[in-house]
């Protein structure tokens, strides 16, 4: 097997563009005025925004494949590799919990939430790393089939996919109680889009990235193309029985996102690694955790100190809304937010400051 460099510019660029998109959709100036493609689907369905988190998990899987598998092939101590990966996963989970705790402490009306984006990333990274270390590539595909097939049965046995009453929400309510993202005032039942049960198909998303990394290392671009197209078509067919749903991370949604992620990875690889186009987004990619966690902290601190609304009113809404309307003003704030963080990661990159947990 030909081993590619552990760090590919295309992968950093794809990760960085994903993080930038995450910041864009998470930080509008006014949540009441957001363009449809920049919002999550209310329940069933899939918008461009719904693809962002799965793309990040997919890229995480590719990174694990490029960083861990070559070491395993070279005879590295598997137990030591797993301990390193597990410690990193624990640090990611701890950071997510700390951010949620800070939000509950500083933001009026907020409550402590145990699940979260970083928590799911940490869990999926630990499991993906374990598969990369201890299992063979053929077994990764078997694990994906078991995860998505078993989760399909779980959803169907649960009886309904409706909000609050589905088996995923019921399970998360039983596990986490009131420490979930939202709670239905009528039934008292909770739901969390990053809950525990839906982490199972999310792991499959990371394993798709792990499988794609093998083709990337071997230079088998055709396999990426075929697999991406087949995954998208199968997902579209599967959605007639189990619809796309990011909140539940339905198997059709996991396969749909993995297919598009494979095609995006292929496009970035050809454009940047092979054709030598500029690696746009790379600076976000090499400091992905710093950019995401830092932006989350800013999301907490600005409203906590009553700075966000005055900034938005004076610098954006006050003059943009009369000229172009509230949606443009809200989007302009989000773009400025991303630009600010690009300046931060640009400065970090220039000084070779990279924060990795």
Please give a handful of descriptors for the protein shown.
14 helices, 357 residues, two-stranded antiparallel ribbon, disordered N terminus, globular, 1% strand, 2 strands, mainly alpha
Task: Spell the H/E element sequence.
Answer: HHHHHHHEEHHHHHHH
Strand order of the largest sheet: 1-2
The strand count comes to 2
- Give the radius of gyration: 20 Å
**Portion in beta strands:** under 5%
Folded structure, characterized:
There is one protein chain. This protein has 357 residues and is mostly helical. The chain is built from 14 helices and two strands, in the order αααααααββααααααα. The chain is 68% helix and 1% strand. It has a two-stranded antiparallel ribbon. The chain starts with 8 loop residues before the first helix and ends in a 7-residue tail after the last helix.
Question: What is shown here, in short?
Answer:
This protein has about 350 residues and is mainly alpha-helical. Helices cover about 70% and strands about 0% of the residues. It has one domain (about 10-350).
């Amino acid at each position: 097997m030909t081993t590619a460099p552990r760090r590919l510019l295309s992968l950093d660029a794809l990760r960085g563009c994903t993080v930038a998109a995450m910041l864009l959709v998470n930080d509008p100036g006014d949540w009441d005025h957001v363009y449809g493609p920049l919002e999550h689907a209310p329940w069933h369905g899939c918008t461009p925004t719904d693809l962002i988190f799965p793309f990040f998990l997919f890229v995480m899987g590719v990174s694990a494949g490029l960083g861990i598998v070559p070491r395993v092939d070279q005879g590295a101590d598997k137990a030591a590799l797993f301990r390193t990966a597990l410690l990193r996963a624990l640090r990611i989970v701890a950071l997510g919990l700390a951010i949620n705790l800070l939000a509950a402490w500083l933001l009026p009306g907020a409550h402590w939430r145990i699940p979260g984006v970083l928590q799911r990333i940490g869990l999926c990274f630990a499991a993906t790393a374990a598969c990369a270390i201890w299992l063979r590539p053929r077994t990764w595909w078997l694990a994906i089939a078991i995860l998505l097939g078993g989760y399909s049965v779980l959803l169907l046995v649960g009886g309904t996919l409706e909000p609050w009453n589905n088996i995923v929400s019921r399970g998360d309510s039983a596990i986490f109680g009131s420490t979930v993202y939202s709670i239905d005032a009528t039934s008292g039942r909770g739901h969390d889009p990053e809950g525990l049960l839906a982490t199972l198909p999310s792991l499959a998303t990371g394993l798709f990235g792990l499988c794609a990394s093998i083709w990337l290392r071997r230079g088998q671009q055709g396999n990426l193309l075929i697999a991406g197209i087949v995954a998208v078509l199968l997902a579209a067919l599967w959605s007639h029985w189990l619809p796309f749903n990011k909140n539940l991370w339905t198997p059709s949604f996991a396969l749909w996102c993995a297919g598009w992620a494979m095609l995006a990875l292929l496009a970035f690889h050809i454009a940047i690694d092979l054709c030598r186009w500029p690696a746009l987004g790379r600076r976000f990619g090499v400091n992905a955790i710093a950019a995401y966690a830092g932006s989350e902290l800013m999301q907490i601190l600005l409203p906590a100190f009553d700075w966000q609304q005055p900034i938005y009113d004076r610098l954006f809404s006050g003059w943009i809304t009369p000229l172009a309307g509230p949606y443009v003003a809200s989007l302009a704030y989000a773009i400025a937010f991303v630009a600010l963080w690009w300046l931060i990661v640009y400065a970090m990159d220039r000084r070779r400051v990279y924060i990795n947990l």
